[in-house]
């Protein structure tokens, strides 16, 4: 609605004054993260209607500076605001996101080049705050991809976005909060390049590379202990990536399915204080993680609804049918039912036969 209202008013000065006033309101919402997150989105939408680049840049930096990056709600609000701005200023936003990434390197600079720190347009961040800022940065790329024009989306992904993100994806020492943001960005990228959005026969060549990162992230967790949303987000990203063309090979299905199964079904302890993600209706994050695991299995069967796929997945679950732990047996049975139900609805490799007709009074042999 805000976008439509601003489109009616062609006065650029009025648009900038509205965005400037919203920016000044940010300090009023320090204790109200939900409302502040909404304000970030409004500012981003307003910036998408403003042509003056210096004004847009200043307010993009203001959003990063004003966000409490330790709060997931504000991180997402800031990222979504950046994405909204990118609807009209994709190139500019990508440049500024790369500049924000350099704040961390500038913080570490010493000697002659230490003057860069003094030129940073924000206060000095602690190491912990910088990690949280990095999480917001990673998440921002996901929403930028979502907002990017379809005409330039694939080119920007191939030449700018994926090469930049790869440096972070491949870092095996990345903090969990950053990995969670990267997993959500992978999911958003997969949704953005789904065949339902992109015309033609586009193939997202980086799909298997991203799945490789997902497996690495999941395998860094302790199977029995749930201490973050990482596995939940990994399952959600998996479901989105699996639904891209072409379908995964049998070997890829087996490798991916085994990793998710071996690190999700054994979960039995949950760190206190974990909260479910907004769009998950489960009572606990453990339940939500198991539910998303089921969705990932469904996506695998939907994309390749054959006896071979079902056989592979059931073989993967077989060791859990006889586990001593009741929760492992129960989850494996539930997953089996879920797999078979989807196959029943989508099966492509079965033929319904027609019984032979017998003559009147004849008995079948």
TrEMBL record:
Residues 2-293 form the MROH2B-like HEAT-repeats domain. It comes from the Eukaryota. GO terms for cellular component: cytoplasm. Pfam families: HEAT_Maestro_2. This is Cse1 domain-containing protein. The lineage of its organism: Eukaryota, Metazoa, Ecdysozoa, Nematoda, Chromadorea.
